[in-house]
Structure formats: C-alpha cells, structure tokens
Amino acid sequence: MRYLFTLIGLLFIIPVVNAQQEAWKIVPGESIGQVKLEMPANELASLGKPDTGDAAMMKAWRIWYGRRKGGAVDSAAVLAVFTAMRTQDTQYVKEIRVTSRRFRTAEKVGAGSTMTAIRKAYPGLKLVKVYAAKNKSRRIEVYDDEKLGIAFETANARSRRALCSMVVVHTPGDPPGSYLDYHIGFDNLLPVAR
Q1: Contacts of 97 by beta carbon, 8 Å cutoff, 6+ apart
Q2: What is the superkingdom listed in this entry's lineage (predicted)?
C-alpha cells in the first residue's frame, strides 16, 4: 500500500517538475518559456500586464522585468516580446528576447554563458551585427544561427571572455531584428561596420 501511495505521489510530482522545467526553456525557432512564436498577442495576458513597451504602426514591444524578493524590479532580468499585425484584428508574436539567466536551451546555455560554450552548442552561429555607442563606451555583438532561429548578443564583446547578455528567438530563416531592431538599455547604439 505504501508503494501505491508513493507511485500516486510521483504521478502528481512529475508533471509539476516538467511544467517548471518548460517554463524556463529556450527552444530555437519556437519559444522562450511560455511565449511561443506566432501565438496571438492576447495570450500574453497570462504573463500579467507588461512593465513597459512601445507600439506604432500595428507593431508593439511588450517588456516585463523580473522581480527580486520583496517585489523590487530586477532590470537585469528582462523578457521582451515583439508582436505585429498579421490579420486585421490580431497581433502575433514575431520575436522573443530574454536576459534572465534562468532561461536555458536544451544544451544548457543562455544569458550569462560564455560565447565559447554557446559556439560549441551552436556551431552554425555567425557574427551578423555589431553596434557601438557614439563614444565607443558600449558595444554589442549579435551572433545568429538564422537556420535554427536563435541569436545570442554580447554587451561586453571586447572582453577576453565574452558573455551572452541576451538570447533572441526568431522565425527560422529571418534574421533577429528583421522586424524592428531593439536593444534594451542601449538606445544610443548605432550599427558599425565589422
């Protein structure tokens, strides 16, 4: 009888553990956590009201910040979702960006991982864009595997040990930022020649 209760208990625990793992999973060309490419924007309501955003010409960015214990905003943990109108009355998710270190791919890489580990996990990555502040104090490099639909950005690329600062999931075949180029906290960056 004790074994039966243990088995029944496991049947309830396993789905909860799997759901928690799925909530932090990055799937190239498909999703980050609960947010999936091509899902209707009204389904984003499950995430709560965005903390900020921007909208124009039937396109929108919705941005949620993480929370620290006590409820204070954690601006280092950002989920940004870009939506665009595809039908007359519905916007759909076109691009998902995340800076939180909790989100990981099946290969266990994400924000905070070294670019060496990321390149090993995704050998198809190519440096596709470089941005720099006018005064050269800040720089972002964007590495993309367009075929898979995943990109990794570094905010300190000049460092010997470049770390990923943001993961972008986009439609396979479309480059990241093809809808609207946007870098959270780096508003004054300009594209530069590589």
Answers
A1: 78, 79, 80, 81, 82, 166, 167, 168, 169, 182, 184
A2: Bacteria
Residue 31's Cα: distance from chain center in Å? 8
Give residue 35's domain range.
Answer: 2-191
Distance of CA 63 to the CA centre of its chain: 11
| Residues 29-68 pLDDT 10s | 999 999 999 999 999 999 999 988 888 888 888 999 988 8
Distance (Å, whole) CA 33 – CA 26:
6
Show Cβ contacts of residue 158 under 8 Å, excluding neighbours closer than 6 positions.
139
Amino acid making up residue 53: G
Single pTM value for the model: 0.81
